[in-house]
Write a structure and sequence with these properties.
By secondary structure, the protein is of the alpha/beta class. The strands form 4 sheets. The chain has an 8-stranded mixed β-sheet with strand order 2-9-8-7-6-3-4-5. A hairpin with a 5-residue loop joins strand 4 and strand 5. Helix 2 runs antiparallel to helix 10. The mean pLDDT is 96. Bound molecules: pyridoxal-5'-phosphate (PLP). Pyridoxal-5'-phosphate binds next to helix 4. The site of pyridoxal-5'-phosphate (PLP) has 13 residues, from helix 4.
């Protein structure tokens, strides 16, 4: 046997202290353990369409396969020109979207990498970023990792989870650099009204803030909801619009995303040079996946069938909303977009003190994995996020079990 040389104890660096990503946190780790012991776990915790029988359009697969022989080398750091041009054309078709220079489109290994890169290029220690609560927690984590301070503004459940513009205003300080807008929203499914977006743009204008718009669900809309890109309402402001193939085109595993930078880029040379530098240090995004972008954004939009009134995603959203609505002490704002429901557990009925424990108990007892609301930087332990990706029959069975569990649950 090898005698180990005694290493210095490796502790976690301080810079990771506020970096959390609970969607794949301790509850998910316990689920993996249970699976290893042979239990079947219904995973309602990750917005990953493929395991639920959603297949990517065949044209995307064929195009990527055909590109494999020529996609062996590194590409330009920003990404291949044909894909960046396709992204430009996509936005040219969107009413009111500002002019977009192909040099201001960067491709990434998913939106995730671009969120990390752009916040690293933006923030000095102590700079503040306005992030929604609840949020997609990568925004909070990436802000902290980049040395910044996330300042959470409240989205108002009573107002269809629209951001409270007054709350945003009250949190602006001389250190504030950017406002993050996740629309359609994960975890709430809210699709923001044009008025709210205009008010947010106006705040950004008054305080010289950068707009960072995460629009990865912009084509996953229900009941005819209309999505407005905040960039279209603020052509005079620097705006970063993030999107990619993970959700609309169901190829989350390919890791393909982009960021489109619009507005007065000539006032942001240092920032853009920083992005350029970081893009070059990661060499380039996964090249075969870049080839999927052009065919995806310019071809037939098969997501439309899934979100039609009788489409699979709409039906599943409906099942989730109606089942949750019938549970005592549970209420839910009907999502207008995205792939999640974010129900509220009435504190007078359920008295949950620790929502992580609630999810662990649900997992142990019912083998259902969901994410606690505080994992989305929601301040109180009274929400859960459930993905609406399983077939209606599975979702109905899971929610039935969850309802029974909650009815007798006490902490
Ligand atoms: N932004 C939001 C709001 C998301 O929900 C997700 C994934 O769930 C991402 C970004 C990450 O997407 P990608 O797969 O492009 O990294």
């Amino acid at each position: 046997s090898v005698r180990h040389h005694p290493l210095r104890e490796l502790t976690q660096p301080v810079k990771l202290q506020n970096v959390l990503y609970e969607i794949r946190g301790p509850v998910a780790a316990r689920a993996a353990q249970l699976e290893a012991e042979g239990h079947r776990i219904l995973k309602l915790n990750i917005g990953n369409p493929a395991p639920f029988g959603f297949e990517a359009p065949d044209t995307i697969l064929q195009d990527m396969i055909a590109a494999l022989p020529t996609a062996q080398g590194y590409s330009e750091s920003k990404g291949i020109l044909s894909a960046r041009r396709a992204v430009v054309s996509r936005y040219q078709e969107e009413p009111g979207f500002p002019d977009l220079d192909v040099d201001h489109v960067y491709l990434g290994n998913g939106v995730s990498e671009l969120i990390m890169m752009t916040l690293q290029a933006l923030l000095d220690p102590g700079d503040e970023v306005l992030v929604p609560a609840p949020d997609y927690p990568l925004w909070t984590a990436a802000t902290s990792l980049a040395g910044g301070t996330p300042m959470h503004y409240l989205c108002d459940e009573q107002d269809g989870w629209n951001p409270s513009v007054e709350d945003i205003r009250s949190r602006i300080t001389p250190r504030t650099k950017a406002i993050v807008v996740i629309n359609p929203n994960n975890p709430t499914g809210a699709v923001y009204s044009r008025e709210v977006l205009e008010q947010i743009a106006q705040l950004a204008r008054e305080h010289s803030l950068l707009l960072m718009a995460d629009e990865i669900y912009d084509r996953i809309l229900y009941d005819g909801a209309r999505h407005t890109s905040i960039a279209a309402l603020a052509p005079d402001l620097l705006c970063l619009t993030f999107n990619g193939l993970s959700k609309t085109y169901r190829v989350a595993g390919y890791r393909a995303g982009w960021v489109a930078i619009t507005g007065p880029t000539h006032h942001a040379r240092g920032f853009l040079e920083g992005i350029e530098l970081l893009a070059s240090t990661r060499l380039c995004p996964n090249v075969p996946a870049q080839h999927a972008i052009q065919v995806a954004v310019s071809g037939h939009q098969s997501i439309d069938e899934l979100i039609a009134p009788e489409g699979r995603l709409t039906q599943q959203r409906d099942v989730a909303v109606s089942m949750l609505g019938r549970m005592e002490g549970v209420s839910v704002v009907e999502p207008q977009g995205a792939l999640y429901v974010f129900p509220r557990l009435d504190p007078d009925v359920h008295e949950i003190r620790d929502d992580v424990q609630l999810c662990l108990d649900l997992l142990e007892q019912e083998k259902i994995l969901v994410v606690h609301g505080t994992g989305f930087n929601w301040p109180t332990p009274d929400h859960l996020r459930i993905v609406t990706l399983p077939w209606s029959v599975d979702l109905r069975a899971a929610l039935e079990r969850m309802g029974n569990f909650l009815a007798s649950y006490q902490q």
